[in-house]
Write a structure and sequence with these properties.
Helices cover 31% and strands 14% of the residues. With 72 residues, it is an alpha+beta fold. The chain has one domain. The protein is flat and about 45 Å long. This is FAD dependent oxidoreductase domain-containing protein.
Length: 72
């Protein structure tokens, strides 16, 4: 079976996470990321080269939440 191509728009936290998840689910999938700039590129037009995501865990004595934290 020929894998379907997948297109992801953007290389921010959500775009790159989505692309990685698509490849994780199907390693043979052709994932294309469409962007003008990738994180780390230096350009005045790049939205925010210092943007990022922060996570504060709420997992306390809860096996399922602790597993999610460990995976992500």
């Amino acid at each position: 079976m020929v894998p379907r191509p997948c297109v992801v728009f953007g290389a921010g936290v959500i775009g790159l996470s989505t692309a990685l998840e698509l490849k994780r689910r199907d390693a043979s999938a052709r994932v294309v990321i469409l962007v003008k700039y990738f994180p780390g590129d230096r350009s005045i037009k790049y939205c925010s080269p210092w943007a990022g995501a922060n996570w504060l865990s709420t997992a306390t004595d809860n096996g399922r939440k602790e597993e999610w934290d460990a995976e992500t």
